[in-house]
Amino acid sequence: MIKEFKGTGVAVVTPFHKHGTVDFTSLGKIIEHIITNGVNYIVVLGTTAETATLSEKEKVAVTDFILETVDKRVPIMLGVGGNDTQKLVEQVNNTNFDGISAILSVTPYYNRPQQKGLFYHFKSIEEVSPVPMIIYNVPSRTSVNLTAETTLKLAEEVPGIIGVKEASGNLMQCMEIIRNKPKDFLVISGDDALTLPMIAAGADGVISVVANAFPKEFSEMVHLALSGNMKKARELHYKLLKFINTLFEDGSPSGVKAALEIMELCSNNVRLPLVKVNKQTYASLGNLIKEIKA
Q1: What 3-state class would DSSP assign to 47?
Q2: pLDDT cut 70: percent of the chain above it
């Protein structure tokens, strides 16, 4: 199970029609695009999927569609997050996990819990989950940082928690986790731009946004880095770096959806409170895509 989630995972977008409904045709195109270009696994209902704006019916429909389309070609990780522990426990208990290899659960947002609360939050979810669990630390979105100490305590004391997606942007914190973690505990980058330095420090891969658009190039960079070929990995890293930075200038997934529209994979539609990228960012993404493909 640990090996399944080394390398490149993709937090898949949810394409929408102009009038707001889920565009399953485009979703199918994107799934084929990322699988045929070498990603290792797919994350369903992550932040990039605009999950916060999906109805419960839509979440089920999107998950079922992706499971059917993937057809066991790569493992699937399901996003299960929120800020009400008991509600999440009930959600996990009522979820059909057929075809799901693991769950990804974000630190609770808005409540701003103490570290002790975070520990018992994740422990409570793991206790009812029939599949392994990756915890997700992204303080820029949740306003709470899961410290290295708490992450390591979860890694050591809660067997079903097999890794952390670290998007704190704090390389010192990431390295402290890597240095002290159990042998089989995964450390996964949650920042596309920091993936190469994190792997150089000992991380196991990435859950990526940019790989929606450039799965082949980004997966190859990750593979090269994990194989120790840092020279070639650096070349791809710097080839993609400006594109990655531009992708997030007007927020995510607005940026990657703009890129996917330019690449004719889906329309550039997002749900409020998100809005489309501005014209300057859109034009910059178009130019950078041409450069990368050249």
Answers
A1: helix
A2: 100
Please list, in sequence order, all residues whose beta carbon lies within 8 angstroms of the beta carbon of residue 225, skipping any fewer than 6 positions away: 195, 196, 199, 200, 233
**Average pLDDT of the segment spanning 195-200:** 98
**Tens-digit pLDDT profile for residues 3-56:** 899 999 999 999 999 999 999 999 999 999 999 999 999 999 999 999 999 999
Task: Locate the domains of the chain by residue range.
Answer: 3-227
Give catalytic residues, as residue numbers. 136, 165
**What is the C-alpha separation between 227 and 119, in angstroms, rounded?**
33
- In the predicted structure, residue 1 carries a pLDDT above the cut 90: no
Mean pLDDT taken over the chain: 97
* Total Cβ atoms within 10 A of residue 119: 19
Q: CATH assignment of 3-227, given 1.10.155.10, 2.40.10.10, 3.40.50.720, 3.20.20.70? A: 3.20.20.70
Cβ atoms 114, 146 nearer than 8 A = no
Q: What angle do CA 229, 235, 236 make, to 5 degrees?
A: 95
Burial 152-169 (b: 16+ CB within 10 A, else e): bbbbeebebbbbbbbbbe
Would you state the torsion angle of the CA atoms of residues 72, 73, 77, 79, taken in this order, to the nearest 10 degrees? Answer: -90
Q: Which residue in 101, 120, 121 sits closest to 109, CA to CA?
A: 121
